[in-house]
Design brief:
By secondary structure, the chain is of the alpha/beta class. It is built from eight helices and 13 strands. It has two domains: 70 residues, Spermidine Synthase, Chain: A, domain 2, CATH 2.30.140; 213 residues, 3-Layer(aba) Sandwich (Rossmann fold), CATH 3.40.50.150. The strands form two sheets. Strands 9-8-7-10-11-13-12 form a seven-stranded mixed β-sheet. Strands 1-2-3-4-5-6 form a six-stranded antiparallel β-sheet. The chain is globular, with a radius of gyration of 18 Å.
């Protein structure tokens, strides 16, 4: 459904003097961030969430779920490259990869750059997000190595036993359908789903205001011998700085062979970024003590 009447109640959207804004409410920061909207391209309510795709004035097209921005045309490459390349390089020969949370499937496209990867299983709870992204974000190109499953990632992972070399947990923030992807049981199931030398990486939120970051690291430390957090800057995300946490059964990202890094066509990732992203400021180190 496109070009819908803005007077209908849309989560986070407000019209001021004929100008549409998306207000992303961040209660932990007691702040709202406003994105000026040029056009509402797509709006629908699925069984799981309200899905919209808008043309913003600053970041180009943006996927918005329940009023929270997920990925933008202008800076989405940073998120997609940072969540995928570090784990796929750290594992010396990843054959089987999985990804929970599909959306625009950007991280799965990055994973295809690793020739050893035979299959990437993408598990997305909401088929309507994928179809909206295919229409409005990235045109769909089929690829035999990507297999899509429409299922709750928290249920799907329970059925996987020692199957994956690398798992990318591209989850939304811990609200709505993604809440189940933040539980102790889910982290245990991810551990079970990995092979004996498998690696998982989690979108672990803002270190500045979200307590899901500390909780994620603490839960993973109980299960995995190697746990490292790395950061990046994503301009469209509240506060800019964002964390990912990698949990590994055998291979350390600090000793990865960076000759394996597939960065020739990357817009963000390179060997220096790979190494530097693990250097944490003191306030984050203190949170992890
Ligand atoms: N980086 C992504 C992209 O390229 O579009 C954004 C993905 S967004 C951060 C997270 C995705 O996870 C959404 O598409 C949402 O529908 C999905 N999701 C939320 N809860 C889920 C669950 N329990 N199982 C599987 N997918 C889930």
């Amino acid at each position: 459904m496109s070009n819908r009447d803005f007077s209908e109640s849309l989560i986070g959207y407000e019209k001021e003097d004929d100008q549409l804004w998306l207000w992303d409410d961040i209660p932990e920061l007691k702040m709202e961030i406003g994105y000026k909207i040029k056009k509402l391209l797509h709006l629908e309510k699925s069984a799981f969430q309200e899905i919209s795709i808008v043309e913003t004035a600053s970041y180009g097209r943006m996927l918005v779920l329940d009023g929270t921005p997920q990925i933008t045309e202008k800076d989405g490459f940073i998120y997609n490259e940072m969540i995928s390349h570090i784990a796929l390089t750290t594992h010396p020969k990843p054959l089987t990869a999985g990804m929970i949370g599909g959306g625009d499937c950007g991280p799965a496209r990055e994973a295809l750059k690793y020739g050893s990867v035979e299959t990437i299983d993408v598990v997305e709870i909401d088929p309507l997000v994928v179809s909206a992204c295919r229409t409005w974000m990235t045109p769909y190109e089929s690829n035999d190595r990507i297999r899509l499953f429409y299922e709750d990632g928290a249920r799907w992972i329970k059925k996987q036993q020692r199957q994956y070399d690398v798992l990318l947990v591209d989850r939304s923030d811990p609200y709505g359908p993604a809440t189940a992807l933040y539980t102790a049981g889910f982290y245990r199931d991810v551990h079970q789903a990995l092979k004996d030398d498998g690696i998982a990486v989690f979108q672990s939120g803002s270190p500045f205001y979200s307590d899901s970051f500390k909780k994620t690291v603490n839960q993973l430390r109980k299960l995995f011998p190697i746990v490292h957090t790395y950061t990046t800057t994503i301009p469209s995300f509240p506060g800019g700085i964002w964390t990912f946490t990698i949990a590994s059964k055998r291979w350390s990202p600090l000793q990865a062979d960076l000759n394996r890094l597939q960065w020739e066509n990357a817009k963000y990732m390179n060997p220096d970024i790979f190494r530097a992203s693990f250097q944490l400021p003191n306030y984050i180190r203190d949170m992890l003590k």
